[in-house]
Design brief:
mainly alpha, globular, 2 domains
Length: about 300
């Protein structure tokens, strides 16, 4: 892929479009401060979703059409999206405020992960894989049924502390699982390119198989104990409150996710396996995580984020 040395009129038009989008977010935040409103009160999900979608469009344009000189435009869009994203969470989706917040918090962390990657892996098609995950997590929040919500603050002080730990461990574990998923997808794509001997100038540039394998291994190593701790605390809270049953859909889905991680850890570190099989199993674990978010849409559950649990 050859990147142009000179900035064409089309590139200038693209940069102006991105600048207007970022300026709109900044003006909205500035308007809130000027009118003495709560910071980011008027920002909606559309604001930061549009920024991430535009950044993804620029990634695709840069890869498919060889349009260069727009790297900083992608970074500006990502930064504007992150600011709007954070403002929205502060105003509308704080944890245990009665709103569903984990997918939005997870998508915010992954958006920061994307922005960081544009500096550390600036010569690779980083956003082509990370930004779709960010948009998917936002979509999970947006398309949930209106009669579903999030967790309210428990009245007991001790229960409140354990609930915070439950959410924190699950969130951090989900971050590790998302990173492992991204590394696994990139690993499979890169392995396919090498198998079919695709020329470097005819495919997006990716990290080496060794680096992707190492990234996935480290992410899973961190994710497993965090998710195990979060699920164990949730199990103890369930026993203490007696609000959920052992056959609850949310509990079954979480159990399947944990079992998939146990198998993944076993074959990776016990059997010392790697490569495509481990990558596919990691992708399965990620899909189970998404199912754990969405199970309340389809099946009745006594979990606080479900209809029966509220």
């Amino acid at each position: 892929m050859q990147h142009g040395t000179y900035v064409s009129c089309d590139q200038i038009a693209i940069l102006r479009t991105c600048a207007h989008a970022a300026q709109g977010i900044i003006c909205e935040i500035d308007s809130d401060l000027y009118n003495d409103r709560m910071w980011g009160e008027g920002i909606s999900v559309i604001c930061f979703t549009a920024c991430y979608a535009l950044a993804l469009s620029l990634e695709i344009l840069e890869i498919r059409k060889g349009v260069g000189g727009i790297r900083w435009a992608r970074r500006a869009l990502a930064l504007a999206g992150i600011l709007a994203h954070l403002a929205y969470i502060v105003n509308h989706a704080l944890p245990m405020s009665g709103q569903s917040s984990i997918p939005l918090l997870l998508s915010l962390i992954m958006a920061i992960f994307y922005l960081s990657g544009t500096f550390h892996h600036q010569r690779t098609a980083w956003g082509l894989f990370v930004l779709p995950v960010v948009l998917l997590l936002i979509l999970i929040h947006v398309v949930k049924p209106v009669n579903l919500g999030g967790m309210d603050m428990p009245p007991e002080r001790s229960t409140k502390m354990w609930t915070w730990l439950h959410l924190t461990f699950l969130l951090l574990g989900d971050v590790g699982l998302c990173v492992a998923f991204l590394a696994s997808v990139m690993y499979l794509v890169q392995a396919r390119y090498l198998k079919h001997k695709v020329r470097p100038d005819h495919a997006p540039r990716l990290l080496s198989l060794e680096r992707l394998e190492r990234m996935s291994r480290r992410a899973i190593t961190l994710a497993f104990p965090l998710l195990t701790s979060g699920l164990l605390i949730g199990l103890l809270l369930m026993i203490q409150t007696g609000e959920m049953r052992w056959w609850d859909a949310k509990l079954i889905t979480a159990g399947l996710l944990w079992l998939a991680l146990v198998v993944l850890i076993t074959i990776r570190f016990g059997l010392h396996m790697s490569g495509r099989r481990v990558a596919w199993l990691t992708i399965l674990a990620f899909l189970l995580m998404v199912a754990a978010f969405a199970v309340s849409w389809l099946l009745p559950t006594q979990h606080p984020t479900g209809v029966l649990g509220r």
